[in-house]
């Protein structure tokens, strides 16, 4: 075991100790809060952002409204699940199942950290700038190869591919919606500016209109008819 494997092991065990302290129920509640929070935030971020902008603080920017709405929904769901997990964990402690909850919390947190690191390392290994580092870690670290293999197998599952595709589609849909609304706002601003300019021009012409009406036009005498030299027959 080299220093790379030792560092990865220390990170996994450190988060496992944290899971032992919080307990299994609290750890699971935190994960469920994040997953459900992201799902609900992707659905209702636009509506919540508009409500926030209308009743609390006018953000005046569609992208900022969507971002604030997303964060508000995510934070609310996550905090609710964390509080529920802490409350349920205390109930288990008083019921005499606290040690089981803590032991399962250690195991669950170690597995969770292992998977998170696996996905991070897998994503980094796909980047072109990490090509040399990937080759070095692949050769020197046994943990890196194992983590990368686990993440690769999970990413090839049909269910994960379906979720990933839906997530990307939702992001593209939100991005297109934001772009369309921003384009509409820009066109509306250009139209408003053109209308304001036209109104100002009409006002200037209206100011000159009474002056033109009051100014008398010079009297023009009709031309005298040219006398005819012909005598009547």
From TrEMBL:
Coiled coil: none annotated. The keyword rRNA processing does not apply. It comes from the Bacteria. GO terms for cellular component: membrane. Residues 178-197, 202-233 are annotated as: Disordered. The chain crosses the membrane at residues 29-52, 64-88, 103-124. InterPro entries: Colicin-V_CvpA (IPR003825). Keywords: Membrane, Transmembrane, Transmembrane helix. One of its GO terms (biological process) is toxin biosynthetic process. It is a multi-pass membrane protein. The keyword Transmembrane helix applies. It holds the Pfam family Colicin_V. It is found in: Membrane. Residues 202-218 have a biased composition (Basic and acidic residues). This is Membrane protein required for colicin V production. It comes from Helicobacter pylori SNT49. The lineage of its organism: Bacteria, Pseudomonadati, Campylobacterota, Epsilonproteobacteria, Campylobacterales.
